[in-house]
Records
---
Amino acid sequence: MSEKPFRARQIYEWLWVKSAHTFEEMTNLSKALRDKLEDKFVINSIQLHQAQYSNDGTIKTVFKLHDGNIIEGVLIPTDDRATACVSSQVGCSLSCKFCATGYMKRMRNLDPGEIYDQVVEINAQGLKHLNRPLTNIVFMGMGEPLLNYKNVMEAIDKITSPEGLNMSPKRITVSTAGIAKMIKKLADDQVKFNLALSLHAANDEKRNEIMPINEQNNIPVLVEALNYFYEKTKGKITFEYILLAGVNDSLQDAKELVELCKRVPAKVNIIEYNPIDQADFLKTDVSEREQFIQYLERHKVTAVVRRSRGKDIDAACGQLANKF
Ligand code: SF4
């Protein structure tokens, strides 16, 4: 547009550091340039559509995208953290049986700006309601991040860049249902963020039943990919494990999980199941959960119980389904 190069830097800063939603806000540009930009470009920022506040402090936000699609993001405050759980796709194609998003159609991938904007908006909520900025980001909202690989990587680049939000990659976790080929790609790309695998069953027969993606990416194939990731990045894996009563919570299941942890350097996050309308799973009761965890600990597997937050507003793990 025959403008000086420093104008590009100014616009970049308005877009990625100051998160401007309109060209009008870019007050250090001349009015004529702002009008020219307005004529030639659009800023497809995400709009805060609705927010729900849980009595445990969790905030679930429904964001409206420029094409009318809707996604959800969650702010999860704990004593020492403020975590944003962000979406990577509109809906999801993987149909995990315990997950409300899995019952929706995958409409499209989010673009890097839409992923980045969720972080910016949730960070602003943290500052407004908790008086503190985000400490962590997890890609555990709607969608499978590794099926939107390029855009997720680009968003993380901006989130961690000094010319963006300047967050440490160590504070970011990407959680996958297990796409072996893309886990290897993460390793080849030498990513610095944390990787979590939604495991939920340590044998193929059970995993096939609750996570159909396991049929093409079974446990031996995932073990190979995760070890490749560990060798290349030295990043330990986290196995996410939702306890489902009578499905994956027996001592035999715990034993299989211990065996798996001997084959991959990993720790385990135990997650309480949150009921959804679409499925009739039940959550494991406390005494059985304790036995399961004690078995893991006796066999030297590090296991942490992740308490579910925001259940009263359908904001907890597996409950995101645009129900508002
Ligand atoms: S758990 Fe993740 S990958 Fe599985 S259906 Fe839900 S959003 Fe998709």
---
Amino acid sequence: MIIALTGTPGTGKTTVCGIIKENSQYRGLYSIIDLNKIIIEEGLHSGRDEESDSYIADFEKLEKRVKELTSNPDRNIIIEGHLSHFLPADSIIVLRAHPVALRKRLGRRKDYSFKKIKENANAEALDVILVESSERSDKVFEIDTTNINALAVVKSVIFITESLEKGKIPEGFLPGKLNWIDLVEL
Ligand SMILES: Nc1ncnc2c1ncn2[C@@H]1O[C@H](COP(=O)(O)OP(=O)(O)OP(=O)(O)O)[C@@H](O)[C@H]1O
Ligand SMILES: [Mg+2]
């Protein structure tokens, strides 16, 4: 199964995948494709966007490369990155974090301006990635990471994957339970 692990920057995607990579028990279940890494290292972009201070992904090249990397899987694959929901996958898991918690997490990043933190917290409050994901797939699940540690998030990812493999819907992770709309800051 190919899983897109997406979410607003700061929701914990890389932390979760770090735990999976470090732990042999989890490493045997999933191989990880780090989208940000391949975009930069393999030049799958059309340059830098100065305003957002990030690379502009070349989706045609990125999709072609991800299809190559996922063509012969020996285990489940997690495509990790905040653009992963735009790529072909069997299901999408959206990591979520309360906008106040997210502001705190992103506030620790030296390279994140006040403006960038606010934009991301607002995107989270407005469910931007969840909406984009739901427009592309009917197999979308979300994990609220606000009050659980990253290991618990890993276990939730495994629960979702195993449920789907058994043909069951992991009801507890269906989207629609979070409502942070009042936390949008103008
Ligand atoms: N479940 C969690 N609870 C509390 N803090 C967390 C949790 N998961 C990650 N963090 C912290 O949040 C910060 C952001 O995590 P991380 O870099 O994994 O996010 P990301 O989703 O990969 O972001 P980006 O899209 O920018 O790469 C880190 O400081 C990390 O330690
Ligand atoms: Mg990351």
